[in-house]
Design brief:
Layout (H helix, E strand, L loop, with lengths): L13 E6 L4 E4 L2 E3 L6 H12 L3 E6 L11 E4 L3 H11 L5 E4 L6 E3 L17 E3 L3 H8 L5 E8 L3 H12 L3 E6 L11 E7 L4 E8 H16 L5
Parallel strand pairs: 1-4, 1-6, 4-5, 6-9, 9-10
Antiparallel strand pairs: 2-3, 7-8, 10-11, 11-12
Helix pairs in contact: 1-5
The protein binds cytidine-5'-triphosphate (CTP) and calcium ion (CA).
Length: about 220
């Protein structure tokens, strides 16, 4: 029996979703990246598509099967993800930034494989903050949802990110919790807006994707009280 939410409650929306972890090459065989399976972003893409949205999934490398019915734009680096997001931004009514973006890139990418000759110091420069850029450019009616991975003081750091980046909401993951998050099929989150914090207890990433979209739709169409 299809849950009620599988009715087309997202038809008319074009959802731009980023997923996976971007990678910054150090040399032809090594990169700086971070722990992200892409599962949460792909679950969101599939959920939105099932609910009638058109989905553009801008994906950094993952080991996952692409969800059917979504347009997939493969990228590797943060620079490529930024370019793809900005290029597709005019089409989007909802942007969900589930990707784990590499925060730094090596200032120099070595042409040849670096040899292991002793201690190594690498000079890194920060990457662009795609979420902040997207939020700064958004037009009325467009919603921007970010993610935040925190290991301590999760709510305080999450609210700070929400305000600093100008997102409409942040899906906050406390990544210090054992057994959920990262490679797991399960996750828990807090959906933070400027003035609310909605606790989403541990469930499958598929279920969590739908819960997140439910709250996004509440932002879109505030409940009448
Ligand atoms: N993000 C982004 N561009 C970056 C870094 C992060 O768009 N260069 C986005 C992520 O996709 C996510 C949100 O910002 O939606 C928060 O990511 P997070 O890593 O938690 O925040 P940072 O601002 O990078 O802060 P820090 O890693 O220092 O905690
Ligand atoms: Ca970061």
């Amino acid at each position: 029996l299809a849950p009620l939410r599988f009715r087309n409650d997202m038809s008319g929306e074009t959802v731009l979703i980023t997923a996976g972890g971007t990678r910054e090459a150090l040399d032809p065989v090594r990169f700086l990246g971070n722990r992200s399976s892409g599962k949460m972003g792909y679950a969101l893409a599939e959920a939105a598509q099932r609910r009638g949205a058109r989905v553009i999934l801008i994906s950094a490398p993952t080991a996952l099967q692409p969800p059917s019915g979504c347009e997939i734009v493969p990228v590797t680096t943060t620079g490529e993800m930024r370019a793809a997001v900005l290029a597709r931004l005019p089409e989007a009514s909802l942007i969900i930034k589930a990707a784990a973006v590499a925060d730094y890139r090596p200032r120099i990418r070595e042409e040849q494989k670096m040899k292991r000759t002793g201690p190594l110091t690498i000079d890194f420069e920060p990457t662009e903050d795609i979420l902040a850029e997207v939020a700064a450019r958004k037009t009325p009616g467009v919603l921007v949802i970010g993610f935040a991975a925190e290991t301590e003081n999760a709510i305080a750091h999450g609210r700070d990110k929400l305000l600093r980046k100008g997102a409409d909401a942040i899906v906050l993951n406390d990544v210090s919790r054992e057994g959920i998050g990262f490679d797991s099929d399960r996750n828990a989150a807090t959906f933070l807006t400027r003035n609310t914090a909605i606790d989403m207890p541990e469930m499958t990433k598929r279920e969590l994707a739908h819960r997140i979209l439910d709250e996004v739709l509440v932002l879109r169409r505030p409940r009448l009280v």
